[in-house]
Design brief:
The protein is mainly alpha-helical and 520 residues long. 58% of the residues lie in helices and 4% in strands. Strands 3-4-6-5 form a four-stranded mixed β-sheet. A two-stranded antiparallel ribbon has the order 1-2. Helix 7 runs antiparallel to helix 8 and helix 7 packs parallel to helix 10. The longest helix has 23 residues. The chain is globular, with a radius of gyration of 24 Å. The termini are far apart.
């Protein structure tokens, strides 16, 4: 079997120039006005505070520090040593810039994998789809775990697939290390373990793998667990939380056999999983399409995915699905089956076993997998060169549309929405929180108020006449209900700041309508 790694010398000069050009533009979009993107809520209250605690004490015994695995904190925690007396904005900027190499690494990894399996044309398509994806750009430069999870889940899935195809010791250790790193990014990466077990059985059932390789599968999982424990410096090995918050963990811990299995995981890791499970069981405040709720909706993630994924990417996904169904593409055995199962299982879990509807970022890991699924369209099996030319012309047109959609919204990638709902200007009508308003536009807001003296920020929530700014979360009553009168007016904003801050004009007639309705 060919090696997945490709040397620079093996890539033709023209292709290498194309790759470098795409990467340079992608890096520019990553860095574009980054200092003006304010700290999002979690960066203010969790990420930077936890990172300082973890890298200073190498402990994970606070609620927030144990809620997430420590890998991200290790990556950007150096800012506290480089800038011991630095300002918050300085540490925030350089912490975010620490993630730039991982943005490039993710893009190059997808490119190399697709090139290995499907060739250079498909690889260039995948590079464009990854680099200019608005969700990847939005979360890839924030100090949150979602992007790291996305690229490590992709790398782990590919390395495990290659291991199943040829279970050598080298691939055992490589696959185990990458899986361990994926587990260190976010607790939900633990879903990979049962998924990998299912595919191990499938490879054995289809005779792609022999029964005698099962000890090597166990060895790969053991390597992953060692890497996971090493991430906690082995200080949390053999420790279980004294109490359990979630009902599911209470059941697991009360059964002797399953309780023993818990000792395989670090204590702090278990505390984070238990905390996340407890929140998922009890629910959290969410908003979708005019409805505020607390216990989750199964249709939340499919709807948000449909409106926040570029329409051109959705069309390519439909084309790819039809092509795979009609066997117009020849993938390596079981590769696409594994990718589709990974995508579907993550959607299924967050739709039916999770009551936290905070944002599409929870499913960010599906985008690299979807890109791998779509990229082979470039090598579609058709009856004539003329038809292949027309297919590639159509794909190129969709890619241009895709890139332009991302460039046109820069640097407000977080608020991206596709044409199905009329673009980002209408996104506020459907979602809140990290899908559009995560506090990222405070600096842009201050600049806007300086250049628009007739507009004032609405601090007092009581009804009033004038031209004022209200953020999307308040308009949608995401946290409080004081602004429900503004929703009752059913007026569109006359302007916006970064799509998360909305400018409304309220007249005397509007105020009379409010008084007649008596919303209070």
């Amino acid at each position: 079997m060919k090696r997945i790694f490709i040397t620079v010398k093996s890539i033709p000069a023209g292709e290498l120039l194309a790759v470098l050009g795409l990467l340079i533009i992608g890096v520019f979009l990553f860095c574009y006005q980054l200092p003006l993107v304010s700290a999002v809520y979690d960066e203010k209250t969790v990420s930077l505070i936890d990172a300082k605690y973890v890298v200073t004490n190498f402990r994970w015994d606070t609620l927030e520090a144990s809620r997430y695995p420590p890998l991200l904190y290790y990556i950007f925690g150096w800012v506290y040593r480089a800038f011991p007396d630095g300002a918050f904005t300085q540490r925030l900027f350089w912490g975010r810039m620490t993630l730039l190499p991982f943005y490039i690494l993710g893009a190059v990894s997808v490119y190399l994998v697709v090139r290995r399996f499907f060739g250079k044309g498909c690889a260039l398509v995948s590079l464009v789809l990854f680099l200019y994806n608005p969700e990847i750009l939005a979360h890839g430069r924030l100090l949150k775990q979602d992007y790291l999870q996305a690229i490590t889940v992709f790398a782990s899935a590919i390395s495990y697939y290659l291991f199943l195809r040829q279970p050598t010791l080298r691939r055992l250790f490589l696959g185990g290390m990458i899986l361990g790193i994926a587990l260190l990014t976010k607790g939900s990466s633990l879903l990979l373990l049962p998924i990998y077990l299912v595919f191990t059985c499938l490879f054995i059932a289809t005779k792609q793998m022999r029964y005698r390789s099962i000890p090597k599968v166990i060895g790969l999982f053991l390597v992953a667990l060692v890497v996971l424990h090493a991430g906690y410096l082995f200080r949390e090995t053999g420790h279980l939380p004294p109490t359990w918050q979630s009902q599911k963990f209470q059941i697991v811990a009360s059964t002797p056999f399953t309780r023993q299995l818990l000792y395989l995981l670090p204590g702090a890791y278990l505390r984070g999983l238990d905390d996340a499970m407890q929140i998922s069981e009890s629910g959290w405040g969410s908003y979708l399409w005019g409805e505020k709720y607390f216990n989750g909706r199964w249709y939340y993630f499919p709807i948000v995915f449909m409106i926040k994924t570029p329409l051109s990417l959705l069309l390519l996904l439909i084309m790819a699905t039809i092509a795979w169904f009609n066997k117009k593409i020849s993938p390596p055995p079981l590769l696409m089956t594994m990718m589709v199962f990974l995508i579907a299982s993550h959607f299924f879990y967050f739709m039916f076993f999770n009551r936290i509807n905070h944002g599409l970022r929870y499913l960010l890991m599906v985008y690299p997998l979807i890109i791998l699924f779509i990229a082979p369209l470039w090598k579609l099996k058709v009856v004539s060169p003329e038809k292949l030319f027309r297919v590639r012309l159509g794909i190129t047109s969709l890619l241009i549309w895709y890139v332009w959609g991302t460039i046109s919204i820069a640097p407000h990638y977080l608020a991206y929405a596709n044409e199905l709902i009329g673009g980002p200007k209408n996104l506020w009508k459907y979602v809140a929180d990290s899908n559009i308003d995560w506090g990222q536009d405070e600096i842009f807001l201050a600049q806007y108020l300086q250049t628009h003296p007739n507009v004032r920020q609405k601090i007092d929530p009581t009804p009033g006449v004038g031209t004022f700014l209200v953020n999307v979360n308040n308009v949608n009553n995401f946290y409080y209900d004081e602004y429900r009168w503004l929703r009752q007016l059913k007026k569109d904003p006359v302007d916006n700041v970064g799509y998360s801050q909305l400018v409304f004009e309220v007249t005397d007639d509007d105020l009379r309508k409010i008084n007649n309705q008596n919303p209070f």
